[in-house]
Amino acid sequence: MKFCKDCGGVLNLFENNTSELCSSCVQHKKQPLSKVHKPITDNNDLLGETVFTYENGKIILRSKEGWLLWSASGEAETEMKTVLKTARFIYEVRKKRKKKS
Fold this sequence. Notes:
- It contains three helices and three strands.
- The protein is α+β, with helices and mostly antiparallel strands.
- The chain is elongated.
């Protein structure tokens, strides 16, 4: 007897048993639970743990580890999406380097 990979229900005995999903899951076009993506906590935590400071005429964004993630002069205008994109990229690079050492 085979069971649905998603809901765990018994597959219909009269169906072609090559499918791993029951007809109900296929009908509802449900995405199997094994393929549901979990949110990336590092990116979400990154924003909650960073600190903006103003030092020597520059605006600086630092991670909780003290890593410099982004900086610009105090008079510069920068879109927040650009700041966040840069900060996330730098954070990931530094995190990978730290794991290697």
